[in-house]
Each structure stands twice: as structure tokens, then as C-alpha cells.
User: Fold these one by one.
Assistant:
Number 1:
Amino acid sequence: MSQTITDTQSCSVDQRPPSLEEADELARAVEDRVVVAMSGGVDSSVTAGILAGEGYDAVGIAMRLYSTPQESYTKSCCSPDDLFDARTVADSLSIPFYVANYEDAFRERVIEYFVSEYRRGRTPNPCVACNDHLKFDILLQRSLALGATYLATGHFARIDRSGEHPKLLRGVDRNKDQSYFLFGLPREALGRILFPLGGMTKDEVREIARTMGLETAEKAESQEICFVGGGDYKAFVAKLLSEQERTPGRIVTTSGEFLGEHDGIHQFTVGQRRGLGLSYHEPLYVKAIRPEDGTVVVGGRDELEARGLVAERCNWLSFERPTGPIECQVKIRYAGEPVPALVTVGGDPTTAFVEFEEPQRAVTPGQAAVFYRGEEVLGGGWIEEPRS
């Protein structure tokens, strides 16, 4: 029978976590302990089942991230129903189970960031922010403080430990590969992270869940942003923006032709075609958003092309910093494929300049640009602006 303990104290985002050296001392007391981040879905359930079956001292932790009316997130992850499912799986595996309250950190690091980016005319990526600031920051440090050697999650990605330094690799199942969301992992923490599902397909994961008799084996996947009820992000952002914070303005073509007005730039994203409310002789797409005056610039499909981009706040996984230009592949959206490009880093290693081999459409400020060399994730950063 699993033990359920609710951590009612929100973890301060400013508290000092243990250093990796201090964590080594803690881990020596409980060899092979692994904390499994359990969201209540089939992937994290199988992750816990695999590690428990391999003899690890597995401990399940679910993150309580927000408290809103039940109906607003019945189809998302981390809802009360999901926490119950995670507890049920942990109980069936006979492993301890805890619920940690990270609501304050989630609101500050993910929800407020999400709204702020739309306020600035950018398109956020909350899954990357959640990984960077919660799973592989606060939860990782909590795991080390509990004496765990590893933190394990159900991400479809791999870590190659055969060389001098661990490398992050793409998941084998290309339809589920989640390495794009993981470029912000701390380089020094790669040796502390386990991704047991990275070498499997989704179908194989479900079959393992059936074999284990897990209740989540047939559970549907969440497709929406977890904190946006009903998937209507525009209404969610509008509700949190005050009247003074909404930025109405004009819609114009790239040549300056006035086409209409709008009541908030938070309703638009670069590359958007639907929902513009315009009648024109050709299909129009959002090319740029100017938060300073609320102008939304639209143009034809070919006008979306950019030869490169500037990425800021870059994180490097394969090296401390690049020593010269890198010929690699760059992925600018989760649903896209990596494309050949040349990445150059200036004096500041957190800024990268990307030149595509072929122009790319809808390079979107606020999204991630992730750098690959074959299977390996070299690093990545946040798109600041496209370059023509």
C-alpha cells in the first residue's frame, strides 16, 4: 500500500537547493533511489512501473500545480482526477506516493510568463517553461534533497551515457519525440535524469501498461494547455489582462494598407491565418506584431519567409559554449522537422544567430529554436526575431 503525504507548503522559487555535491552525500544513504514525476497519465505510470520492476527504490511524486474549478481542466493533465490516477498506480506498484504543492511557483513561472508573452506580442511555449522551472529545477532539487540518485519522467527522449558527458538524444518514436521541450535542461543535471521511454514507441508503452495491469493503460492523452480550460487561450489571456494592459490597434499589410482594427494583440500569433476577421483577394497571414503601438502586420504566404533568426537565452547541452560556427539542424516548432542551418554565437554564448540553408516560414518570436546534430540535442534558445 502506498503512503500518500500532501506537501501543503508551496516550494519557494528562491529557496537554496542542495548542490550536486551535497546531493551525492544524501544519495549515498539511499542507493538507487529514484523519484518518478507522476502526472496520472500512461507514460509516467509505465515509467514508474519499469523502474520499480528493475529494482530501483522508486518514489512517486505528483505536482499540484493549480486549483481551479474542476470543469475547467477535465481534459488536461494534473487535474484532481489525474492525481487520483497517479496515486492508484503508485498503490498498485506498492511504491510511496507524495503530492507536492507547487501552485505558487507554477503561477509565477508558467502562467504569468504565458500571459506576459502574449502581452508583448509573442507566442509562449508553456511546456518548455514548465520543464525548465518546475520539473527539472524545483522537482529535481526536491528529489536530490530526498536522497534520490535520479529523477525520472515519462518524456520520449533519451540520454546517452556512453561518453565522457551525458548527451540528450531524440526519442525513437518520431511522432512522440519530446526532445524539443527539453533543450533548457541544466547540462550538469543530465547524469541525474532518467527517460525510460525514450527507446520505445507509444504503442509499446501502452502494451507494457496493459501487461502490468495499470488502470491508465487506455487513458487518452491530454492535447490542451493544462491550465487553459476548453483550449480557448485567447479568453484565458483576456481574463487575466486588465483593460489598460490590452493593446488594441490596426491591421495593415506589409505595404502599409489599412485593413481594419482589432481589440488586442494577444489574439494573434505569427503565421496565423484563421480568425483574422478580414476579407481580402488572397489569403493573409500574420507576419509581425508590434506591441509598442498594437499594429498587426499581415501578408501573403511567401511574405512569411525568413532566412534566419536571432535566439536569446540559449542553453548549451553538448558543450559549455560553441567555439565556432556550427553546421546543424534547427527546429523552430514542435510539429516541424529540423532543417539544415548554420548557427553562430557571438561574444555572449546566450545569443545565437541562425542562418537557414533554405528560407523558413513563420519564424515566431517567443517559440523555441532547438539545435540538433543528427540525434543529439546540442542546445537551444528562445526566438527573439526573424531575419530576412
Note: The first helix runs from residue 20 to 29.
Number 2:
Amino acid sequence: MTDPWVALEPGADPVQRMRVLRRAHQSFTEAGTVTRPVRSVVADSWRRSARAGVAPDGTASVELTDGDLGSYRAEHPLARVMPLFRELMGTFAADGEHLLAVCDAQGRLLWVEGHPVTRRQADRMNFVPGARWSETAVGTNAPGTSVAVDRPVQVFAAEHFSRRVQPWTCAAAPVHDPRTGRVLGAVDITGGDGLAHPHSLGFVQAVARAAESHLALLAPPETRTDGLELTALGRDEAQLLARGRKIRLSRRHSEILVLLARHPEGLTGDELLCALYEDESVTPVTLRAELARLRRLLGPGLLESRPYRLTVPVESDVAVVERRLGTGSVTAAMAAYAGPLLPSSGAPAVVRLRRRLADGLRTALVARRDPDLLADWARAPWGEDDLDVWRALASVRPTAAVRSRLDALERELSAAWPRGWAPGGATSSQRPRS
């Protein structure tokens, strides 16, 4: 096959390919081996699905309903391009007895529209708004896999990990925030075998690019044009949007802006020194030089001194997560959490803020006991050793894969403590450090 992202090469017999894929799927679920002609993108997704503990006979769970779903959709950035999706894909979906679906970056379906008969059929496998269709929830599928690998993906018949989904074929492409480059979600077309064609993959990819172009033309909602936007979660070097410019900040400048965004009233030089440097030998001259470079980078009028402060409002992804946690919107907070705050930073104040934000979110996740949200955290790089979260996940989703990982973490924790010491309820954050 010339293009590994396309499910069927031109001229291939879909019925024959379906039979071969069913045998390959059975071989994988029984023995863990992948046989030809399974595409590499599908084989990798099957392996990720198995590691996540997805059951081949399972189904999607509905996380958001009624008012919660409506509120979440209303504030999601992709709501602003739904008219465009309907214009470009609505007639195609209705006439072809297909479905137009849009999911968020966690694989949660926000909109499912199209032919009414096809919608009723899809309802039976919970392919409905508010349902979680991430790889960690239902295994290989176009919208979930697309956001997982950040690529347009086509999934044909028995390439789906869940047997309930194998009568379907789908193609999806991720949609990115044009300002930050982060995945907002994916647009998907789902239906019958006729979608197993290169044109359907190219179609959703073109629609996704059109949506990104449209988002770039729209002014940010409810954002002051003279404000700053700071993105600092999950990245060592923050990105700042200032007066239409994207600025990639150095690590030290990232730390300074994170702290000044937290303190609109400003910070004195001594306060910034203590917040940024563990080494007490660092002089005020060093800090003043960094601030002078930052002032030149930002441009005139944005950074003042005595005390050091930003002269315009700052919206940061840290503040978004905190606000959503404060209102009890755990799902929305997780959607905005792209990872630890400036993970490589050793600045004392940044370290404290990073821990406080992560601890607040993980505590809310454990209390919420939502298996998909817990799985998202546990499978992320920052959560793979989080014993509390794995314990909570095992209590609500006790699959063999989850239990195996929890057992390994428990053994690792026991080995890390001195002989004769009973760690009891010690968490990953309480482990001895070498």
C-alpha cells in the first residue's frame, strides 16, 4: 500500500479485506500478535488500546449529558466552527447516510449529526454526544486515534478495536488552535464501507484545515485586544501571544512571566529573586539584566518596574485550569491541562505552583472516580507512576492491565523503603528520592 494512512488501496476487495482483518483482530486479542496486512498505524493503536486495558467487547461510556454537555459545548473553541462543519459536511453526511461527528482533545464526542437512520444505529453503540471515544476508553477508532497521534486517520471495519464498532468505517482529522498549535479535537465522518476510500480521508483533512483557517480569522471571544495570553502547561518554554505576535520565551523569561501573571499588583526585585533562584548568591544585577532583555522582547509599555509588573491583563492556561477546578468542572479542567507547569523549572515559586496545580487536579480526579478521566491521567507521562491515581483507577476499572501496573508500582514502592518499614498508604509523592 502506497499510503499507510489510507485503509484500502484502490481496487482492493473490501469484503475480502474485512475477513482478513477479523482473523488478524482475533489473533491479536487472543495471542497479542499482529499479522499482515494490518497497517502499522492500526497495529500501534491496538497495542496502545490493549495496554490501556480496553476490552474488545466493551462500549463507550457517556460522560456528559443535558446541561453539562450544553455548557461544555458552548464554551469549547470548536463551537465556533460548527456552522462551517455543517456547511461543508452536512449534506454529504445526510445524503450518503453517514454521520458528522466532532470530538474534543480527549476524544469526547461533542456533536454527532447526520442521517437519522444512521444516528439510531450509532446510538446502540453509544456513538452519541457526551460519550468518550478516546483510545483509552474504546480502543482504535478514527476520532480517538486521530487526536492520539495528531494525524488524519482512516479506520476500516475490523481495524476497530471494539467488536461493536467493526461494522463501521470512519475517517477523522485533528483540528488545531491556530495560535498555540495545540489539538482542540477532531472532525470525523462515520458510516459504511464506502468511506474506505482515499477521498474521505482527504475530505476530512481539508475540512479540518478550513476550520483552522476560520478560527485564525475570528477574534478571541471575550478577550481584550490589549491583553496577553500565556501558555505554560506541558512545555519547558512558554509561549506568549502579545499584540498579535507569538513569542517563544526562554526558560527564565517563562518563569518570570508566570510569576508576574500571578501577581498583577507586581513584585519587588527581592521578591522575584527569592521566587526565581534557590542560589542566594545570585545578585540583583543578574535579575535586572534578565528583566531588561524581557522588556526589549515584549516591546514598549508592557513591563514596568518598582515594582515589576505587567501593564495589561494576562490570561494563562494555568488560570483556566484553576478557575474550572474552583467551580467543580473537573472534566473541563482536565481538558485544559496539557501537562505540568514548566516541568523542567527549578524556580522555587514555580515548583510550588506546579505541585499545587497538579495536586489539586489529581485530588479532584480521585474524588470524582471517573474511570476515563483517571485513565487519561494515569497514561500521561506525568501520571504513569502516580500510585494514588492507579489505585483509584483499579477500584473503578479493575482490568488485568490496570491491576498489573498497580502491582508493579506497589512492588517498586515497597522496594524503595528500608526493610521492615511498612509504607501503608504512602503515595508516589511520598516515595524516597535517590
Note: The chain has a mean pLDDT of 87.
